[in-house]
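User: Need the bound-state model for 3-amino-D-alanine:
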Amino acid sequence: MKIAVVGVTGMVGQVMLRILEERNLNVSTLIPVASEKSVGTEVTFKNKQYKVVSMKQAIEMKPDIALFSAGGSVSLEFAPQFAAVGTTVIDNSSAFRMDADKKLIVPEINAASLTKEDKIIANPNCSTIQMVATMSPLHKKYGIKRLVISTYQSITGTGVKAVEQLENEFQGKKGPMAYPYQIHKNAIPHCDVFEENGYTKEEMKLVNETQKILDDRTIAVTATAVRIPVVGGHSESVNVEFRNEFDESAVRKLLSDTPGITVQDNVDVNVYPMPLMAHGKDDVFVGRIRRDYSQENTVNMWIVSDNLRKGAATNAVQIAEYLIANDLV
Ligand code: 2RA
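Assistant: Bound-state model below.
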């Protein structure tokens, strides 16, 4: 397989390379792609050096699959050009996620909907992926009526500049500011930009993408997305109102039995998910599962996952694996 990684020098692009190596995808040719300023630099993949090429050069090479993580404007401009030469694009930006004719895929939920005709496939937002991966089996069994989500998101989701600001603050140094506030002693209720309705794009992604992926517009969703000074992953407190009665231990077992989910839930010995432990892993970790006694048919839980891996790069590579395994590319 000729596989392009578009945005290869970015944080997610770099993780995509590592995941491709770890999962030993059949990559006959790697095509690292980045902006003009990076063309000619080198990246290491499977202990070999590869020169970064331009978009134009990459399109001419006609990759079988192109993993994109270069921002929405780049995806809007170039994903169709790759698709036009027969490449299947898996796009990590928000550019195509809510397009009616594009599929928004978490493989363990809805990969079966993919066909050879899907030439631009959207990878959901990181905070959505870990949440719907957990909600999907619960929705199938109990029917979800409403979700109330509070996120505690890693600074890596903002980008390199924010990570550098955090590191500088810890070391007492001055440097470029991704936020006009201190990060390391703070919790900033502002992920992405604010919309007219008073919610941020991040919060509305949780609303809209959840309904699309679970294919149920009746699920009521509301969210508050907060940035906190951690690097290991995103954490989410989720209050889930079912349409039917549930049993707490049955919920715990159902999640334990779901591939890709690890239940860490024993408060007697302080076992619960934390970004520090999730960092560098691909699973979604679930704990603090407990009935909400303030409302019938409702459960609370705590969901943690590495936002650069399952929240972005791993999910994208898993889509590629599915396409290859099912002869869809
Ligand atoms: C964030 N979900 O964490 C976005 C991804 N960059 O800000």
